[in-house]
Amino acid sequence: MQRLSCETNLKRETASDLSESLRECCAPTADEVRLQLFDVSQREAMLEIWRDLQQRLGSRSLMCSAEWTETWLDHYRDSIDVLFVVGYRQEQVCGICLLSESKHHRIGPVTIRTLHLGTAGELHGESVCVEYNDILCEPRYRNEFVSELQKLILEQKNWDQFRLDGIDDAAGKDWPLLNETASLHQHQITVQSRIRESRYFDLKQCRAEGGDILSLLGKSTRSNIRRRIKKLGETELEWAETVEQANDIFAELVELHQARWKKEGQPGAFASSRFSRFQKELITRLIPQQKVVLCRMKTGSQTIGCLYLLVDCNRLLDYVSGLASFEDVPGSGLVSHYLCMNEAMQRGYDAYDFLVGEKRHKENLGKSANQLRWVVCERKRAIFRLRHLIQKAKHLVKRIVRKP
Prior knowledge:
Blueprint (H helix, E strand, L loop, with lengths): L33 E6 L3 H15 L8 H11 L4 E9 L2 E16 L2 E8 L18 E2 L4 H14 L5 E8 H4 L9 H5 L2 E14 H6 L10 H14 L3 E4 L3 H21 L9 H14 L5 E8 L2 E11 L2 E9 L8 H15 L4 E3 L6 H6 L2 E12 L2 H21 L2
Parallel strand pairs: 4-6, 11-12
Antiparallel strand pairs: 1-2, 2-3, 3-4, 3-5, 6-13, 7-12, 7-13, 8-9, 9-10, 10-11
């Protein structure tokens, strides 16, 4: 890669492997958004800029926050190359984001070099699975920032795939690559976009209509919840207020989560020690700021379920859970989430979001839905053409086999 010199008044100019092939856009006028690149050696200065911008904008988006980014860097920086992209307008910071370069993805024996927006690109089984991914930017300069960022990314040649992982569909539409084909054709890039539903329950609306969650659910779901709770008898909900309390709930959550997945022959999320360490540090950082929630539901001495939720723009995101086995507590997931939703509504949260994934309780309890988008931009490489030919051959064989 060709080395890039990054201007900065903060420290001596440096450049990482990732930044070597990235170039600053053509010199803009004072009224245009200008991007500068900084490698990980400038980490502390960049995080300070990030925190200042976050405070100035009053941003409550977690996945592009300084706290989330710093914690992710603490645990994943040794396996992924990163670059800070800072946007300036008239010498004032107007936006910031992270680009992450990964060499963990493979097609057969061939390594695929991927470039990701934000905290993504981890090894399979270690990913934090970012959803509601985004940049941190002043709204009035967002379109300019995104446009300049896309130009910068397209200009460098050393990635095979560029990925936007788990970005809200409304935010994703700001990216020209989803609407303009001419520039992509010029760069010999193809775009694949997949949209998935993130179902949620609107707590704010429910509160305005009287605060009865059950009345807004389907008839069979209402009946099922009432029957399960009646059978369980008296239930108790514990909402962590301290780090010590949160750690205690988290420890039981991990135990229940791993037991359930191992029973199904799967490793479970916490089989990764890196993922586990990331979550422990995140909880320690964010519980005092009320940016994560740990909640435990019990009946007598038996735990029904433990839930770990992220707080994003006053919405609760159902991040990871540990539930009693169905044999011990039938409907443990449905009951746990229903009880937590009630508590969340009383505490003033706007929505309870179940994130993407196909599970029955998400469909039963999530009465509304957002659209999240995963975008993959691919350069014209021989390995992708070979993959396409193999896929076509497989489809052809299936059609021949099915033909009477």
